Amino acid sequence: MRPILYTLFLSLLALVTPAVQAQRAKKPAVQPTPSMRERVRSEKRAYLVQRLSLTAKEAEDITPILDELDEKRFQLWREGEALARRVRQGDKTLTEAELYAFLDSSLSARIKEAELEKTYFLRCQPYLEATKLVRLPMACREFARRFFEQHKH
To answer: Which of 52, 68, 90, 146 is the most exposed place for a label (fewest CB within 10 A)?
Structure first.
C-alpha cells in the first residue's frame, strides 16, 4: 500500500510543481508611474547638468527635447514588448515565423531608435556648444546604465 501512496504522491508533486513554478515566473509588467517618470527625468536632468556642466538655461532648453525623445523611445520599446518577453523567457511555443518576426521588428526598432536619437539630439544643437552636444548622447547612455544598475530588484 505504501509504494502506491508514494508513487501517487510523487506523481501529484510532479504535476503540481511545474504549475506553481509557471505561476511564480509570470510577473506582471511594471508600468512606470507618473511619479517614477518624473523621478527619472529629475535625476537625468541633474546628472546631465553635472556631467556636461550645463548652465540653467541650457538645461531648461534641452530638457523638453530629451523628455520627448524618451517618450518616443519608450513607445517604440512597448510596441514589441509582448513578443520580446516570450523570446527572453524561452517560450517553447514560439513558431519559426514568430521568431523571424521578432528578429525583424527588433532590428527595425533599433534603426528607428537611432533615427529618433539623431533627430532629437540635433534639435539640441541651437542650445549647446559642440563639445557638449557631442558628449550628450554618451552622457544619456551613461545615465541610463547607472540608473538601472542602481534600481535593480
So the answer is: 90
